[in-house]
Specification:
It is a single chain. The protein is α/β, with parallel strands linked by helices and 210 residues long. 39% of the residues lie in helices and 21% in strands. It has a five-stranded parallel sheet with strand order 2-7-1-8-9, with helices on both faces. α1 packs across α7.
């Protein structure tokens, strides 16, 4: 599930791979504050030759501001969302609050792949593992890891966006999420952003060329 508050959606009309048969999937997961969104934005903006496009997620919440269905998200009712869950139409989903769902539709991912896009996922660790398991070698899963919990605490505090108790909740969740790192194809330790961005580019570009 992508977080559209952190990452701006791409324009799917501008990023189309010429070789549609080789469209791939790139999965990014990380604890909050690891720098994942920054690294993904770097790849999207600085390397258009990778033909990356965000997975367009599905949600049961109402559109905000100028959001349009099929651009930022697909907006459906909670009832429709539950029907799709029952029909196993999602690769992954989460009920963040009662009746507020977010999820990745299998049909949407295939539609983007058929359009020649290399689809990027910004999801939690469980969602990342589910997508990787479903697509196997068609997908590359990347885990962005902070150098330490102490450094992660410093980053979250420096953001000045969360109350102390929220930061502690995020850190507890991060400690749990770090236990999933070995389940990913590649772990990038973000102790130096420039090096982490370069490593992400190298790994992704090699995967797309294979």
């Amino acid at each position: 599930m992508q977080n559209n508050n952190d990452i701006q959606p791409s324009n799917p009309d501008k990023k189309v791979c010429k070789d549609k048969g080789r469209a791939r999937l790139i999965i990014f997961s990380a604890p909050s504050g690891s720098g994942k969104s920054t690294i993904v934005n770097y790849l999207m903006k600085e390397h258009p030759e990778l033909h990356l496009a965000f997975s367009i997620s599905c949600t049961s919440r109402q559109p905000r501001g100028m959001e349009r269905s099929g651009v930022e998200y697909f907006f459906i009712s909670p009832e429709d969302f539950r029907s799709k869950i029952a029909a196993e139409e999602f690769l992954e989903y989460e009920e963040v609050y009662p009746d507020r769902f977010y999820g990745t539709l299998k049909s949407q991912v295939e539609s983007q792949c058929e359009a020649g896009q290399n689809v990027v996922f910004d999801v939690d660790v469980k969602g990342g593992c589910n997508i990787k398991q479903y697509y196997g070698d068609r997908a590359l899963s990347l885990f962005i890891q902070p150098p330490s919990i102490d450094e992660l605490r410093r980053r979250l505090v420096s953001r000045a966006t969360d109350a102390p108790e929220v930061i502690e909740e995020r850190l507890a969740k991060a400690a749990y999420e770090l236990t999933f790192a070995s389940k990913f194809d590649h772990v990038i330790i973000n102790d130096d952003l420039v090096k982490a961005e370069a490593e992400a580019y190298r790994v992704v570009s090699e995967f797309l060329k294979a």
